[in-house]
Amino acid sequence: MATFLYKLGRLAFRRRHIVALFWVALLALAGAGAASAPTAGSTSFSIPGTEAQKAFDLLEERFPGASADGATARVVFKAPAGEKMTDPDNRAAVQQTVKELSGGSEVASVADPYETKSVSRDGTTAYTSVSYQASGMELQDSTRDELKEAAQDARDTGLTVEVGGDALTTTPETGATEIIGIAIAAVVLIITFGSLLAAGLPLLTALIGVGIGVATITALASALELGSTTSTLAMMIGLAVGIDYALFIVSRYRAELAEGREREEAVGRAVGTAGSAVVFAGLTVVIALVGLSVVNIPMLTKMGVAAAGTVAIAVLIALTMIPALLGYAGRRVKPAGEKSKLLGGGRAARKAAAQGAKPNAGTRWASFVVRRPVAVLLLGVVGLGAAAIPTSSLELGLPDDGSQPTSTTQRRAYDLLSEGFGPGFNGPLTVAVDTEASDDPKGAVTAVSGRIKGLEDVVAVTPAKYNRSGDTAIITVIPDSEPSSAATESLVHGIRDAGAEVQADTGAEVLVTGATAMNIDVSQKLNDALVPYLILVVGLAFLLLIVVFRSILVPLKAALGFLLSVLAALGAVVAVFQWGWLAGPLGVEETGPVMSMMPIFMVGVVFGLAMDYEVFLVTRMREAHVHGEKPTQAVVTGFKHGARVVTAAAVIMMAVFAGFIGSSESMVKMIGFGLATAVFFDAFIVRMAIVPAVLALLGKRAWWLPKWLDRALPDVDIEGESLHTGAADEGSDSDPGDERELVRT
After folding, report:
1. How many whole angstroms separate alpha carbon 681 and alpha carbon 678?
2. Are 565 and 384 a contacting pair, CB within 8 Å?
3. Is 35 exposed, middle or buried (0-12, 13-18, 19+ CB in 10 A)?
4. In what order do the strands lie in the sheet with 125-132?
5. DSSP 588
């Protein structure tokens, strides 16, 4: 592989006009496709295999036009002090609001609170439920505007009016945070390279790659039903890895220049060595993202595949466009250790550096670790273990309006309902009873209602509502506890257990659904998929790393170190978002269960990114060892050349993710904090401390591989041994020959 990539890099360097034109044309084509594509319409959200989804499908079939999975809104009214909602003026204002809402084009039904008895016992609070034909992710902006305008008209009469429910669900805006992340990345790159031009290359190529990826997703959004969160994830990950991969190759190019090689030769060797690491690092990220399909949640699968496509584009751009741009830059990109004149470089600076040359920080740190490997290893493992302790009390759930900031109307509506009717009114359960196989349909439904009324934590059970054919009934159950509580989850399981008993007696099937039940089922599904996902992703990556490093212990150490960093990061998430530590400084207004998607999401994203650092850092060590250095010296050499780059890459990644901590959305805030923390733990504790300590302790045993396995594995030559033996150099003088050989390869 090193020889192939070496020739690819030289070819891109020489044919830079064609390469640059190709990528610019591809960006323009993707942009034109995105501009001309129809606006993304409905984004179906289904959770195959869950009882809640089965109930939704049943209600869609038996209650046509009822939009069982449609969005809902609750408009909550509170009378001024000393007044009641039953007063004539207040009653007229509420009924006028109901009339306004009924005229919406996507509205399925609006309930009059005075007819449905949705007025609190003290008479101070009332609410109307609005059902829509489309889900919360599919509603048009005009429909949401009509809802907000109706609420404002009611406020103008003197009532306190707030709106809750998923009808106001919108995708959080993250443009400002991305700009902050890019700005920090630019500063880090300038410090790393000491050159504005060299720093600009990774940023430029990353933006082009993300532009192509996001534009392609936008162009296909309508046809493939891709939500806006798909492009957000692709942008976040594509930007981070795009900068990192380009950073690795530019850094290696400058190191090759510092060794006295000509620019074309330096480009070829940079792509042949660092490019090999980029290819395998990219493969681990792709495996982790595509592996999300094992969860069997279509939306999550689409997000993973789309983000994986953007990562693949980032790899291809790093291997081809970076060499082309380095050809354009010429001598303006300085060898490693030199700064541009603008940033204090020049002939005098080079002379002073030569006179006072001393080991860099990476060399000094690695030398310290290999001298005291046991102490460093114990300190790192104990520290991460302590950070992981809160994980033992991890509670999973999905956010609801109760986790919103108190400044939002959704949270205020949630609180008004809790005060007026009890916390369970914010999460009613819908029980669907399929009596098609029952000899006594009404008797079966009556039995179900009776069983549910006898359960703990039940405040009310509404009379059953039958469909036209009379073979299906809907019962609404109001819990006594809030939707995200453990008591409500126990109630859902209790209703399902009671339903199983009723089915055994009467033949009627009982299914529990609704937003609360769906959240519980999604959390359980994600929880059940975590272990198979870990086995798949870590197993495939383990096999890949065996091929890369030709070792058993090095990949094993990489996987175990990753698990340590993820557990520690999850512990930090629990401490902040569940226990409330540092909640104030981080802007966490409401603590509660950790988002159920966090563990599997962190495993997928962080594993792929962590392997980037592992491959790049340890590849340098492997390269030094293959070329004859002793194991401990190879560790120091790897840090000498790679520590600065890996540090810069990690800081950039943390900056991109940490920018999302400022989001008002609790879910986005949690993801940003979790990923930034995981990158910090993995890059600076696992890869920078535990990895060199373990390799120093293992010595030559770190690179042990059974002979039979060594013969069976393909030789990918990621360390570029063929380049050092002169195999690549022999054909480097003939331009046409190189190109023909590349085509044959």
Report:
1. 5
2. yes
3. exposed
4. 107-110, 125-132, 72-78, 160-164
5. -
* Lookup result for tokens 């914010």: 426
Instruction: Give the CA distances from residue 21 to residues 14, 319, 633, 736, in Å, rounded to whole numbers and listed in that order.
Output: 13, 15, 44, 21
| Placement of tokens 């557990």 in the chain | 567
CB neighbours (10 Å) of residue 18?
11
- What angle is formed at CA 660 by the lines to CA 657 and CA 664, rounded to 5 degrees? 165
Select from 174, 585, 584, 167 the least CA-distant residue to 401.
Answer: 167
Give the β-pairing of 72-78 and 160-164: antiparallel
Q: How many residues does the chain have?
A: 745
Q: How far apart are CA 703 and CA 556, in angstroms?
A: 12
CB 597 within 8 A of CB 299: no
List the structure tokens of 70: 């449609």
User: Under a CB-based contact definition with an 8 Å cutoff, are residues 616 and 281 in contact?
Assistant: yes
List all residues 6 or more positions away from 386 whose beta carbon is below 8 Å from its beta carbon: none
Give the span between the Cα atoms of 638 and 543, in whole angstroms. Answer: 23
pLDDT digits (tens, 9 = 90+) for 446-496: 888 888 988 888 888 888 888 888 888 888 888 988 887 788 888 999 999
Rounded Cα distance, 43 and 228, in Å: 9
Tokens, residue 649: 């890459």
| Low-confidence residues of the chain: pLDDT under 70 | 38-46, 65-70, 135-138, 169-178, 181, 194-195, 222, 225, 227-229, 337-358, 399, 401-403, 663-666, 717-745
Query: Token digits for 241?
Result: 């890895």
Q: Could you report the per-residue pLDDT of 531-560, keeping only the tens digit for each?
A: 888 888 778 878 888 887 788 888 888 888
Residue 28: its pLDDT value, please?
92
Residue spans of beta strands (DSSP E) within 540-626: 594-595
Nearest alpha-carbon partner for 670 in 298, 399, 384: 399
Q: What is the 3-state secondary structure (H, E, C) of 650-664?
A: HHHHHHHHHHHHHCC
Q: Where are the beta strands (DSSP E) in 349-457?
A: 396-397, 429-434
Per the DSSP assignment, residues forming a β-bridge with 127 are 76
Angle at 744 between CA 738 and CA 745, to 5 degrees: 85
State the CB neighbour count (10 A cutoff) for residue 468.
9
